[in-house]
Write a structure and sequence with these properties.
heterodimer, A: 346 residues, mainly alpha, two-stranded antiparallel ribbon, 14 helices, 2% strand, B: 590 residues, alpha/beta, ABC transporter involved in vitamin B12 uptake, BtuC, Rossmann fold, 3 domains, six-stranded mixed sheet, four-stranded antiparallel sheet, 12 strands
């Protein structure tokens, strides 16, 4: 291997790592707030790319139907509960949350995105669609069992992933897509040629992580989320609703998932079921940080990206295996550094 | 009549299954064979997930491990499938032990994710390896031979799998009823109970994980030699998820749940495919969506699965369990002479960050004495208990037990040394019977391990341990309810049950954390009589209690704490007259 190849591999690794950072950050966020290991995050990433590709092809993306169908279920669940409690304010709120907003976004996607619309507008609508799906998932699957153990929540997350996989195949079909991204002549940086795509991905990732940082440390909503993450009961007592915190965390997860999908779409061909492996790699990165420490999780994500890109050069067929088996030494290291008390299943 | 039928139900079921395999068409026999193989995997998962509270998303990989190991050994080296079975189970045990050692020390979801990664890696690994025929798999696997006779037909394979299933279920049930099994069953509630009574929780967790992997490898071995060709598909992640769902839907707390789940899920999947195909077309995988939805509904509405519903119906008809003959174990430790110090603490301190929860507390407890500890809420009494019993490490001070200085205090070690305790918030295993809960206390008195339990060599010891538990239940007055579930007891009786469990550990010193809370007046009197008798037998007792009258009636000496400090220590009458104590309790101005 020459230095040139190594440099190219490293670039690739860093670009992938930048996406895993986003996934890892969101996984950590959702886990700390709701204790859900949000496996379907990867599916959202894949759905984003598939949605954008559908817009490019001039068809109505299947995401619209997923959103409408999911929102209908969420709305009926919410209304049943609100009516049973005679809570009129909640009725109105849930009609807006799960009725008006999803329908508006769906109409937008159906009516106002012609085939030749500018790429940025398509991307924006794609983001809106995918972001709306995420809180719907939270409402249907996780909110009713919010107080269950992480293990039960994990099983539910895996079940959700299975369901999304099945829907994905139905509405998007089995073909893979590759979307448009940053294009143009490569940039020169410190004597290295760097493609615009790589530069764009890294820059977007850094900006997004910075925005998330500002959100959590400067805004009231973000701080409330952190409070809920730190102590659920305590947060409820001072008036922070755990359900609202969970919903916010999932909205952020959806948004970041959508952006990750836009970034990763041009770099690799995505299928309806590609998301799972992507999400899992982000997860391996997140575990480096013990599912809690943001900068470490980011470093872990870059490590995963780099290992993956070098592994694909040396032993392409075993690329994923090498990445996933990385988790064993990482877990070993973590268990030595920071052994946790075990929590029972109930 | 119904009761007797139910007791015989497992045998009847096996007989019916054996007969059915002779009359049913070959196709149905082979479907039933695969359901039984799945049931074997689920039996292991019950042990691991339902009982010990760990989740595995890589169980199918262990099945594949067993299948491929034995297939390789028999096709490429021409070895007998029986050697393959040995290779498969030993290999799976070693792999599981490696993954387990790395993860059992951490929270549950790490193990789940490690198994997930292992499962995916295994699938891609064998799918890309030339030695295993890549994704095409391996063919020409020989059938199992018994005494020179090859089991080739569907019916013969059915027989083999049925025997394996019966053996695994029987083994699993025997293991769960044993000394190790009781500790395993306590792990669902966390590590506290196991560690407090001298059992290594991590080791037991690892044991459950390895046992589940071995059972999975057995299923894989059967699969390989029944189907006679294998490829990676049935060992992928989806299969692992299926196994887990079968276990959860069936009811992961009971071995029978595994059988119900495996049968139900296989049938539902099959039927759904047939049902949905004409509606959505052959390519749609909507059965997965329906399946996922079902799973989520089960998690929402019946997290313990379907078996408990069946069990309710069955339980009312079950004949009552035969009472166990009480046994008095002679104490293995020499009791210290009356009045000698058992525990001595000098200058004990514990800080939580800047907060000093226990500050410079010194006291001693003597054998044959009841030391009462009083203090308002937040005075540091429970922290003090945890420092002594090993729940927490002290920040400073000296501690010695029976004259031996203690450098580091661990709960397990203290139990073996002769300290036992109850908890302020009763820590029992609600779905276990009273007598078994008490027998957990006697865990460190037994010797038989998992091997002895599997072979049934622990019968004598079990009679002793359960008899001892029955004896203690009789002592605390719960003897006639021995086989009821602990979860059905009132809060007051749960505390009494905890006392029986603490005594089962054959202690020199017991720490009782508010034992009288929630008891009625006559029950308090009975409890007081029990404590007096225990004192007369030379036991040292530390009693934390808010009921002043109860404490003053019983205590030989009293210690009063406030804000983490000892504010009075000595004779009850002196303490009662102490002005500091009156201030702490009555708020008299200084």
């Amino acid at each position: 291997m020459t230095a040139d190849i190594a440099a190219i591999l490293l670039q690739d690794g860093i670009a992938n790592g930048a996406i895993y950072i986003l996934l890892a950050t969101v996984l950590v966020l959702v886990f700390t707030v709701t204790r859900v290991i949000f496996v379907p995050q990867g599916d959202l990433v894949a759905f984003t790319a598939l949605t954008l590709a559908a817009f490019d092809a001039g068809t109505i993306p299947g995401t619209v139907w997923i959103l409408l169908f999911g929102a209908a279920i969420a709305l009926s669940l919410e209304m049943l509960e609100a009516v049973a409690r005679r809570d009129r304010a909640r009725c109105v709120r849930s009609i807006i949350q799960f009725g008006v907003v999803p329908v508006a976004v769906a109409l937008l996607a159906v009516l106002l995105v012609p085939k030749d619309a500018p790429l940025l507008w398509k991307m924006a609508v794609t983001c809106a669609l995918v972001t709306c799906i995420s809180p719907v998932i939270y409402r249907i699957v996780f909110q009713p069992i919010a107080s269950a153990s992480p293990l039960v929540l994990l099983i539910a997350a895996i079940a959700t992933h299975l369901g999304m996989n099945s829907i994905g195949l139905q509405v998007f079909g089995a073909e893979g897509v590759r979307t448009q991204g940053f294009s143009g002549p490569p940039l020169s940086f410190a004597g290295q040629l760097i493609s615009q795509q790589v530069a764009g991905v890294v820059a977007s990732s850094i900006v997004l992580v910075f925005v998330l940082y500002l959100f959590f440390h400067r805004s009231l909503r973000g701080r409330a989320l952190l409070a809920a993450a730190y102590n659920r009961r305590g947060a409820e007592i001072v008036g922070i609703s755990a359900a609202a915190a969970g919903r916010t965390a999932f909205i952020v997860a959806g948004l970041v998932g959508a952006v990750s999908g836009l970034l990763v779409g041009p770099m690799t061909t995505l299928y309806y079921d590609s998301g799972f492996i992507l999400g899992l790699k982000g997860f391996v990165g997140a575990i480096v940080g013990g599912l809690a420490i943001y900068p470490l999780a980011a470093a872990g994500a870059v490590l995963v990206g780099a290992v993956e890109s070098f592994a694909s050069f040396w032993a392409s067929a075993y690329r994923d295996i090498i990445v996933f088996m990385l988790i064993i030494p990482i877990l070993f290291w973590r268990s030595v550094v920071n052994p946790h008390a075990e929590d029972g299943i109930e | 009549m119904i009761g007797r039928l139910l007791a015989l139900a497992p045998f009847i079921a096996v007989a019916v299954a054996a007969l059915a395999s002779l009359v049913l068409p070959a196709y149905q026999v082979s479907v039933a064979t695969y359901v039984m193989i799945a049931s074997i995997v689920c039996t292991g998962l019950v042990l691991m997930t339902g009982i010990a509270g760990m989740v595995s998303f890589g169980q199918a990989a262990f099945v594949g491990f067993g299948a491929y190991t034995s297939a390789c050994m028999s096709t490429q080296f021409g070895l007998s499938p029986w050697l393959g079975l040995a290779g498969a189970t030993i290999g799976a045990a070693a792999t599981a032990a490696l993954i387990g050692v790395v993860t059992v020390r951490m929270s549950g979801h790490y193990l789940a994710l490690a198994t997930l990664c292992f499962g995916i890696s295994f699938y891609f690994g064998i799918g890309n390896a030339d030695a295993f025929g890549r994704f095409n798999g391996m063919t020409g696997i020989p059938p199992v031979t018994v005494g020179g006779f090859e089991l080739r037909s569907e019916r013969q394979a059915f027989g083999l799998v049925l025997v394996a299933l019966v053996l695994s279920v029987a083994w699993c049930r025997r293991l769960l009823a044993s000394r190790c099994g009781r500790v395993l069953r306590s792990l669902r509630t966390g590590s506290t109970i196991a560690e407090t009574f001298g059992a290594n929780a991590q080791r037991h967790r690892l044991l459950a994980f390895v046992a589940a992997a071995v059972v999975a490898a057995l299923a894989g071995w059967l699969y390989a030699h029944v189907q006679r060709f294998i490829n990676p598909t049935p060992f992928g992640l989806n299969a692992s998820i299926d196994y887990l769902f079968m276990t959860v839907i069936g009811g992961s707390g009971q071995v029978w749940g595994a059988l119900v789940g495996a049968g139900l899920v296989t049938v539902i999947k099959h039927e759904l495919q047939d049902l949905l195909r004409p509606v959505f077309g052959a390519t749609a995988r909507f059965e997965l969506l329906v399946f996922a939805a079902l799973m989520i509904i089960v998690l929402h509405k019946a997290r313990k699965g379907l078996w408990p519903f069946l069990q309710q119906v069955v339980a009312s008809h079950m004949p009552p369990r035969a009472p166990v003959a009480p046994v008095t174990l002679t104490s293995r430790r020499g009791r210290p002479d009356q009045g000698l110090p058992v525990l001595t603490a000098i200058g004990l301190r514990r800080m939580f960050g800047g907060l000093v929860a226990v500050d410079d507390v010194s006291f001693d407890v003597r054998s044959g004495e009841i030391l009462g500890v009083l203090g308002p809420n937040g005075a540091g009494k429970s922290t003090l208990f945890n420092l002594i019993s090993g729940g927490l490490q002290r920040s400073g001070g000296e501690l010695s037990f029976l004259g031996a200085p203690l450098a580091r205090v661990s709960a397990r070690d203290m139990c073996v040394r002769g300290l036992s305790r109850t908890f302020q918030h009763a820590a029992l295993v609600p779905e276990m019977s009273l007598i078994e809960n008490v027998a957990i206390g006697a865990t460190h008195l037994g010797r038989c391990g998992i091997v002895a339990a599997s072979l049934g060599l622990d019968a004598r010891e079990e009679r002793q341990l359960l008899g001892w538990a029955q004896h203690l239940l009789d002592r605390v007055g719960l003897g006639d309810r021995a086989w009821e579930l602990a979860g059905t007891l009132s809060l007051g009786h749960q505390r009494i049950l905890e006392i029986a469990r603490a005594l089962a550990a054959d202690p020199v010193l017991v720490l009782l954390d508010e034992p009288a809370a929630g008891l009625r007046a006559n029950e308090k009197t009975l409890l007081a009589e029990l404590l007096v008798r225990l004192r007369a037998e030379g036991l040292a007792i530390v009693l934390v209690e808010h009921d002043m009258e109860f404490v003053f009636r019983l205590a030989d000496r009293l210690m009063v704490m406030n804000f983490g400090r000892r504010i009075a220590f000595g004779d009850p009458e002196e303490v009662r007259a102490d002005t500091g104590v009156q201030e702490a309790y009555l708020g008299v101005a200084a």
